[in-house]
């Protein structure tokens, strides 16, 4: 049982480049979300989805896009990378609320 | 504006003693609270939860207390073990599973 799988584990981008962070879960969870972790800031919600075809913004959505075409996958797209997006990104999923989130192991992104 | 705050960035405790981690929140609509543990280079792992209709929940060495009037949450670990050394995050939600997280407390349990 893989749980929540994130790829890649590490990525370095130049300012202005775009990329997609992948997230997949095999637990048939309806709810999926993306967080970023920055020193002293904890985990902040970027975007979330309550089911296939439904997405919404979290606390810090600017500069990111998401889509949810299947229950399993929830990719996060950086449209034009900026140094302020240097962070560790975590994908999480859960069954219907209230339930704890299950997290992936993160993607460490550096934008130079 | 952070809705969930952990005001102690770090805590050091001797093995076998009690560790108490604290968390304050501002939104009275929060109805479900969690604690997560995080080791370096790993994702956060769920530790214990509590609903707003309760004031205490226990799971082995871990107990979470909720004081709604003070908008305060705490995690007690008894007895503390060196393997408990990690960063602990509290989190709260009031809508779907949109959780708001604190900034974390790094616990160091000394042998």
Helix content of chain A: under 10%
What is the overall shape of chain B?
Answer: globular
Alpha carbon gyration radius of chain B: 13 Å
Percentage of helical residues of chain B?
A: under 10%
Give the number of DSSP strands of chain A.
11
Q: What oligomeric state do these chains adopt?
A: heterodimer
Q: Topology as H/E string of chain B?
A: EEEEEEEEEEE
What's the tally of helices of chain A? 0
Distance between the termini of chain B: 38 Å
End-to-end Cα distance of chain A? 36 Å
Could you tell me the number of beta strands of chain B?
11
Most extensive contact: A-B, 27 and 28 residues
Low-confidence stretches of chain B: none
What percent of residues of chain B are in strands?
A: over 45%
Largest sheet of chain B: 6 strands, mixed
Apparent shape of chain A: globular
Short description:
The complex is a heterodimer of chains A (112) and B (111). Chain A has 112 residues and is mainly β. Chain A has strands at 4-7, 10-13, 19-25, 31-38, 42-51, 54-57, 64-66, 76-78, 87-94, 102-103, 107-111.
Features:
heterodimer, A: 112 residues, mainly beta, seven-stranded mixed β-sheet, four-stranded antiparallel β-sheet, 11 strands, globular, B: 111 residues, six-stranded mixed β-sheet, five-stranded antiparallel β-sheet, 0% helix
Could you please describe the fold and organization of this structure?
By secondary structure, chain A is an all-beta fold. Chain A is 0% helix and 52% strand. Chain A has strands spanning 4-7, 10-13, 19-25, 31-38, 42-51, 54-57, 64-66, 76-78, 87-94, 102-103, 107-111. In chain A, strands 2, 4, 5, 6, 9, 10 and 11 form a seven-stranded mixed β-sheet that branches. Chain A is globular and about 40 Å long. The mean pLDDT of chain A is 95. The model of chain B has no long low-confidence stretch (mean pLDDT 95). Chain B is built from no helices and eleven strands. The termini of chain B are far apart. Chain B is an all-beta fold and 111 residues long. Chain B has strands spanning 4-5, 10-14, 19-25, 32-38, 45-51, 56-59, 62-67, 72-77, 86-93, 99-101, 105-110. Chain B is globular. In chain B, the strands form two sheets. In chain B, strands 2, 4, 5, 9, 10 and 11 form a six-stranded mixed β-sheet that branches. A five-stranded antiparallel β-sheet of chain B has the order 1-3-8-7-6, with no helix packed on it. Helices cover 0% and strands 55% of the residues of chain B. Chain A binds chain B through residues 4, 31, 33, 35, 40-45, 48, 50, 58-59, 90, 92, 94, 97-106, and chain B through 2, 4, 6, 9, 31-32, 34, 36, 41-46, 49, 51, 89, 91, 93, 96-104.
């Amino acid at each position: 049982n893989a749980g929540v799988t994130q790829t890649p584990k590490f990525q370095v981008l130049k300012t202005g480049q775009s990329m997609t962070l992948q997230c997949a879960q095999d637990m048939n969870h309806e709810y999926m979300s993306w967080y970023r972790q920055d020193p002293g800031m904890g985990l902040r919600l970027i975007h979330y989805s309550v089911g296939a075809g439904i997405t919404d913004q979290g606390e810090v959505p600017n500069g990111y896009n998401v889509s949810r075409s299947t229950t399993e996958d929830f990719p996060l797209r950086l449209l034009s990378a900026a140094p302020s997006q240097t962070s560790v990104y975590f994908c999480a999923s859960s069954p219907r609320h209230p339930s704890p989130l299950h997290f992936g192991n993160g993607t460490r992104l550096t934008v130079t | 504006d952070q809705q969930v705050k952990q005001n102690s960035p770090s805590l050091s405790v001797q093995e076998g003693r009690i560790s108490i981690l604290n968390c304050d929140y501002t939104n009275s609509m929060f109805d479900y609270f969690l604690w997560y543990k995080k080791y370096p280079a790993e994702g956060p792992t769920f530790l214990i939860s509590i609903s707003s209709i309760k004031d205490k929940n226990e799971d082995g060495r871990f107990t979470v207390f909720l004081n709604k009037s003070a908008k305060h949450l705490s995690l007690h670990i008894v007895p503390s073990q060196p393997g408990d050394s990690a960063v602990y995050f509290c989190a709260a939600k009031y809508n779907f599973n949109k959780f708001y997280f604190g900034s974390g407390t790094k616990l160091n349990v000394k042998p």
